[in-house]
C-alpha cells in the first residue's frame, strides 16, 4: 500500500465548495467535469497540500458528526487560517480540551455538514505526550 489516494465529499453546490476550498486551503483546482460525466455526478478535483481532494455534486449530509478530515498546519500559521475560516462565516466548533503538547486545532463545518480540522500537532508529539 502506498497511502491515501484521494478524499471525496458529496456537496450540493460545486462552485460554492470550490470557493470554500480555495479560500481556506489554497486548493488548486485541477479538473472540472462541467457537463461531462465520467463518474456518478458532476465533479471537481483539487490538490490540497499535494493531496487529491474530490467533490461530487449530490445531496449534502443530513446530520453533523465528529467524523472529519484534519489538515496539518504550522503553529505560526494558526491565526492566519483561523481568520480565513472566520471570514467565510462558516460554523466553527468550540475547541475540545487538550493536554499541553498535543497541538492546537480549529474545527469547522463546510456548507454540507462536513467537519474539517486544522491541526498544529503531529502523531509523534501526541503519542509522546500521552506516554507522560
UniProtKB/TrEMBL annotation:
Q: Which UniProt keywords apply?
A: Metal-binding
Molecular function per GO: metal ion binding
VOC domain boundaries: 3-121
Fetch the SUPFAM superfamilies from UniProt. Answer: Glyoxalase/Bleomycin resistance protein/Dihydroxybiphenyl dioxygenase (SSF54593)
InterPro entries to which the protein is assigned, alphabetical = Fosfomycin_Res_Enzymes (IPR051332), FosX (IPR037434), Glyas_Bleomycin-R_OHBP_Dase (IPR029068), Glyas_Fos-R_dOase_dom (IPR004360), VOC_core (IPR037523)
Q: What PANTHER family does this protein's entry cite?
A: FOSFOMYCIN RESISTANCE PROTEIN FOSX, LYASE, PUTATIVE-RELATED-RELATED
This protein's name: Glyoxalase-like domain containing protein
Q: Which organism is it from?
A: Pelosinus fermentans JBW45
